[in-house]
Amino acid sequence: MVEELVWVNGRLVGAADATVSVFDHGLTVGDGVFETLKAVDRQPFASRRHLERLRRSADGLGMRLPYTEHELRVAMAQVLASHDTGLARVRLTVTGGAAPLGSERGEANATVVVAAGPLQAATPSTAVTVVPWPRNERGAMVGIKTTSYAENVLALAHAKARGCTEAIFATTTGLLCEGTGSNVFVGVGGRLLTPPLSSGCLAGVTRELVLEATDAIEEDIPMEVLLGADEVFLTSTGRDVQPVHQVDDRSLPTQGPITETAIRAFLQLAATTPDP
Ligand SMILES: Cc1ncc(COP(=O)(O)O)c(C=O)c1O
pTM, whole model, 2 decimals? Predict the structure, then answer.
């Protein structure tokens, strides 16, 4: 077994030596953006879309990404080469770099870390709960995959305490938004719906692929529609398309026909497109 390596600002180091400054703005105020990719046998999935979103997120925070897409691809390949084959997650993190101890960013270059770790295959279906805190669909962080995820940490702990693997957020106006790390699709009256980006949800890569591979429609979804839906599924890098068999106290079919079609379409796209 080779030593697992981490790429830190252009240098490959052993995991134990992979460090950043305690003054890094990512650590002190959560000033950073990230991507998580799935890798199968060391091949990152949908890498173009993830790298594009990373750049959009960095732009959204006014942060200069000091490496090219090619350099980041090489970094991912080098890190993955030091990991086992099979299912893995690759994480790219870009933070504000060393800065004074306040909200203002310093003059330093961004810190960029590429690391990998194991990824558990998702369970065949899951339970979710709606959390009592809204997502602010008009907030400054909308659309940015920021490392400021403490809200998600709290919401996920709330869900886990109720036997669920995902917490679902409504918007401030009572529309369906997203999960802590997933997008939500609902099947109602034979139609497949997902909230539009104006709900404040992240432009999930898996969401995008499902929208392209199916007849799904982006539409505002009042929370009552989620609570009465015929079918519900989640999409994310780690879950792919994962049926939901329970929303709060309500049970749903483990895998209804609309979900079945979406799973098939997603798997077909993933199997036939080299870097979808
Ligand atoms: C807040 C949020 N929404 C949705 C998603 C799903 O996005 P993707 O399909 O790109 O993994 C994520 C991914 O982690 C996320 O953090």
Answer: 0.97
